[in-house]
TrEMBL record:
Binds and transfers iron-sulfur (Fe-S) clusters to target apoproteins. Can hydrolyze ATP. The lineage of its organism: Bacteria, Pseudomonadati, Bacteroidota, Bacteroidia, Bacteroidales. It comes from the Bacteria. Homodimer. This is Iron-sulfur cluster carrier protein.
Length: 365
């Protein structure tokens, strides 16, 4: 007996798939992986859904067809595969996610990642279901801030789709572009590579049910911002700045991007980071190292909330390095982040009452 692929497909053409009345070959259900070894043959049948009711009967019918039309001696192995469901255009990307909060800044180094991570931890401490995506392609810092640099990512199957499992720390589900991109090589990543990797962390990850999905965005304006607003309907952004004039000017530029007509992402408010320094031995004194109340003025000018003023304290940096965000400790800085979480919850609720849901920015073809 001499087997060859066309003989197998001829036999499979005699099997009709009840789902659409076409034969298995016509219905493009026979994968291009027919393997022949002596009198053994193996191939895959591909179904749209893992719940397809005809899977078992089609496998049996395929075996019978080969035994009937070729020879009962053929040893047949049929593998079953399922197509990932293509997302329909208007279906929500993350149906279980209620609010998506972008954390952005006009320039680097103002403490955006510190604010994003502590906000996420403080929201989780209030009992909410929280996710955190580190989308800062130029300096992913979450793995270090959460002490998970050496963790490995796992993939599991949900409804026939292979999804990345976020890592859980301090009640927060977490993924970072830093798990995908080598830090030293980040600058070499072409725009589309970074965008695709980021989309994968959003769309192909099992975020499940979340009350708040916090995204640490790259500083300034970039292709990545565009990818994010095209992939997700962002509920609103939190803008982080220091009180310095240069930081404020850049923050204004960043805000203008979100407020562009095409993008139209509401600004939930401003966080003034490194607002003042209080020496531990003189708790009543405040030193305005980077200027006084720059963030307060920015919020006023933009007509948005001042969400919080976070003091400049060495322990924030120490916590960032040790993998345990400062919001998990006791003290005035932790309280400032709890206050921030409450303000963000309020601001999101107000936004949801007063404004229609955000839409993803549609790509023009
Ligand atoms: N309030 C603060 N007090 C003291 N140190 C702070 C404070 N906020 C942030 N830092 C420190 O400043 C540095 C920069 O912070 P962070 O990485 O959060 O900034 P960033 O704006 O996300 O920067 P980039 O955009 O470049 O990633 C870190 O070492 C961090 O620990």
């Amino acid at each position: 007996m001499q087997l060859y692929p066309a003989l197998i497909t001829d036999a499979l053409q005699t099997v009709r798939y009840p789902g659409n009345g076409k034969n298995l070959v016509e219905a493009e259900m026979v994968e291009d992986d027919i393997r022949i070894d002596g009198d053994s043959v193996s191939f895959s049948l591909i179904f749209d859904k893992p719940t397809d009711p005809f899977i078992k009967s089609m496998v049996r019918a395929a075996e019978t067809a080969i035994h009937t039309y070729i020879s009962p001696e053929v040893k047949v192995t049929v593998n079953v595969a399922t197509r990932q469901q293509p997302a329909t255009k208007n279906a929500p990307v993350l149906p279980g996610v209620k609010n998506i909060i972008g954390v952005s800044s006009g320039k680097g180094g103002v403490g955006k990642s510190t604010v994003a991570s502590n906000l996420a931890v403080a929201l989780a401490a209030e009992g909410y279901k929280v996710g955190l995506l580190d989308a800062d392609i130029f300096g992913p810092s979450m793995p270090k801030m959460f002490g998970i640099e050496d963790e490995q990512l796992y993939i599991h199957e949900v409804d026939g789709r292979q999804l990345i499992l976020p890592i859980e720390r301090y009640g927060v589900k977490l993924l970072s572009i830093g798990f995908v991109v080598d830090k030293e090589k980040a600058v070499l990543w072409r725009g589309s590579m970074a965008s695709n990797a980021l989309k994968q962390l959003i769309v192909d990850a099992d975020w499940g049910e979340l009350d708040y999905f916090v995204i640490d965005m790259p500083p300034g304006t970039s292709d990545i911002h565009l990818t994010l607003v095209q992939t997700l309907p962002i509920t609103g952004v939190v803008v982080v700045t220091t009180p310095q004039e240069v930081a404020l000017a850049d923050a204004r530029k960043g805000i203008a991007m979100f407020r562009e007509e095409k993008v139209n992402v509401p600004v939930l408010g401003v966080v003034e980071n490194m607002a003042y320094f209080t020496p531990a031995e003189h708790p009543d004194e405040r030193y305005y190292i980077f200027g006084k109340e720059g963030g307060v003025r920015l919020a006023e000018k933009l007509g948005v909330r001042l969400l919080a003023q976070i003091p400049l304290v060495g322990s924030i940096a120490d916590c960032g390095d040790s993998g345990k965000p400062i919001a998990l400790t006791e003290g005035v800085t932790a309280q400032a982040f709890t206050h921030l979480a409450h303000e963000v919850i309020d601001s999101v609720a107000e936004r949801n009452r007063e404004l229609p849901p955000t839409h993803k920015v549609e790509l023009k073809h």
